[in-house]
TrEMBL record:
Residue span, Tubulin epsilon and delta complex protein domain: 89-266
Top-level taxonomic group: Eukaryota
Keywords for the protein's UniProt record, in alphabetical order: Coiled coil
Pfam families: TEDC1
Protein name as annotated: Tubulin epsilon and delta complex protein 1 domain-containing protein
InterPro entries: TEDC1 (IPR043535), TEDC1_dom (IPR027996)
Coiled-coil zones: 413-440
Keyword Coiled coil belongs to the record: yes
Length: 468
């Protein structure tokens, strides 16, 4: 393990990086006090963990982080930290039972902080959110001088008058709405003017750039060239940014020393861990996740359903496993499968023959012409049940006889199914045409009856449904 001097320097570097990028001030001495579970380090560590968790939840790549300024933590912030850590997977009973009055638990907070830093890759997110001061917006750079309170931003004293009657309240609301509408119009006009100014700058400085990716100067660069006095402020920001990046680079080289020190904290925690002391903690709710009340019943029902499903299909699963593990199918199973396929083909062929189409199974010369490509010489074995046309026998057979016969039977089945589908479509089309012809004949019959009033026509009962 590294010496105490190196560990102290790395801890100070750790605190400095968090202060520069997350805007959370903490001393290295506070972390060292938390190692020995001092009460004075509890509240600062709660603040530090809250800011780190807020940074992780609101982090966006390549965007500047805006810290949240909170003077003092309340119970809501502590519950937020516990809930978020439990969502990330930090399910630790001692941490969940920490009190909300900052009376104890500094070492547990230090261990939780190390877990968040490691699992959420906080320093990688800090590096990904880095942006150069030259890439910031012009208005942001100008407002860093300290916003001066103008006359328009001063509170209006005449609006602070006491309002008694409903009429006065309505008039005050109308006045505020009018001022708000006027401010929005001014803001929109200012935005349009700023966009036009940026476009003019881009067109005027086209072909001149300080960065390789740009083809023109930015408004901030033009402002710096126009007002050279502001260059000093930009240089100061660049120096601060270089110092930030140097600290991050130093951290990547010395990070292992920090984790060695955290290992010593964990070792000390395990050595001094007392189970009786945990019972003296106040009764605090341990889990803050929004779990439904019937989650236990749902889990039990899901497990029961899964067990019943496995037991129901256990025989099928075992049979599939046996088929997968076998290298070949037994002769008895092959004969049974062949007999089953032959029966299905015979039934389908008989259905086609009854419809007036298809061929007689085993007859010579009655094969369908559309399936000549399915019954080639190479596909049929020597002991096939179909009589082939008189042609020369093949010199060799590429695949086994059983495999070729199975493939042939599968193709025949596919042809039979397609033929049945085509016949069903034809029957449906004929039925549609027949209904259309009946309707046309009924129309013509009604036309003839209307022309000759002496004719009496009694329609059959089934034709009444077709009358328009």
């Amino acid at each position: 393990m590294a010496g105490s001097g190196q560990a102290r320097a790395v801890i100070e570097l750790f605190c400095k990086i968090l202060e520069e990028n997350i805007s959370c001030v903490i001393r290295a001495e506070t972390l060292r006090q938390a190692k020995f579970n001092k009460q004075s380090a509890t509240e600062p560590l709660w603040k530090l963990i809250f800011h780190v968790v807020y940074f992780c939840t609101s982090h966006l790549p390549h965007s500047k982080f805006k810290p949240l300024m909170i003077p003092a933590l309340k119970e809501e912030e502590i519950v937020f930290v516990k809930t978020q850590l439990q969502k990330w997977g930090y399910i630790m009973r001692p941490f969940a039972r920490l009190p909300h009055d900052f009376s104890s638990g500094s070492r547990e907070l230090l261990l939780a902080l190390g877990w968040v830093i490691h699992t959420q890759q906080v320093f990688d997110k800090i590096i990904s959110s880095w942006s150069s001061p030259l890439q910031q917006d012009l208005m942001e750079f100008l407002h860093q001088k300290g916003p001066s309170l103008s006359s328009e931003s001063q509170p209006c004293s005449h609006l602070e008058t006491v309002v008694h009657t409903p009429k006065d309240k309505i008039q005050r609301q109308l006045l505020l709405c009018g001022k708000l509408r006027l401010s929005l119009r001014r803001l929109y006009m200012t935005h349009q003017a700023l966009a036009g100014l940026k476009l003019t700058i881009c067109k005027s400085t086209e072909g001149v750039s300080l960065l390789a990716d740009d083809h023109h100067l930015s408004p901030l660069e033009v402002y710096l060239l126009r007002y050279p006095d502001s260059m000093k402020k930009m240089l100061d920001e660049l120096e601060k940014d270089n110092a930030r990046m140097k600290n991050l680079l130093d951290w990547t080289d010395k990070e292992h020393i920090f984790w060695e020190w955290m290992t010593s904290v964990l070792t000390l925690h395990n050595q001094e861990k007392a189970y009786a002391a945990s019972d003296t903690l106040p009764a605090v709710e341990e889990v803050y996740l929004p779990l439904p009340g019937a989650v236990e019943k749902e889990i039990v029902a899901a497990r029961t359903k899964l067990r019943d499903f496995i037991l129901k299909h256990e025989a099928d699963i075992e049979q599939m496993e046996q088929l997968l593990l076998r290298k070949k199918v037994s002769d008895v199973e092959a004969v049974a499968l062949k007999h089953q396929v032959d029966n299905e083909i015979s039934q389908l062929t008989q259905r086609l023959h009854d419809c007036g189409r298809g061929w007689n199974w085993g007859s010579e010369g009655d094969l369908p012409q559309g399936s000549t490509e399915c019954l080639t010489l190479q596909d049929c074995p020597s002991e096939t049940s179909l009589s082939l046309p008189k042609q020369s026998k093949p010199k060799y057979v590429v695949a086994s006889a059983q495999a070729m016969k199975t493939a042939r039977q599968a193709r025949i089945l596919e042809d039979v199914r397609s033929e049945i589908s085509r016949l069903e479509d034809s029957v449906l089309q004929l039925e549609t045409e027949l209904k259309h012809m009946e309707k046309n004949n009924l129309r013509q019959l009604h036309a003839l009856i209307e022309k000759d009033s002496e004719v009496i026509c009694v329609q059959p009962r089934y034709c009444k449904q077709l009358v328009l």
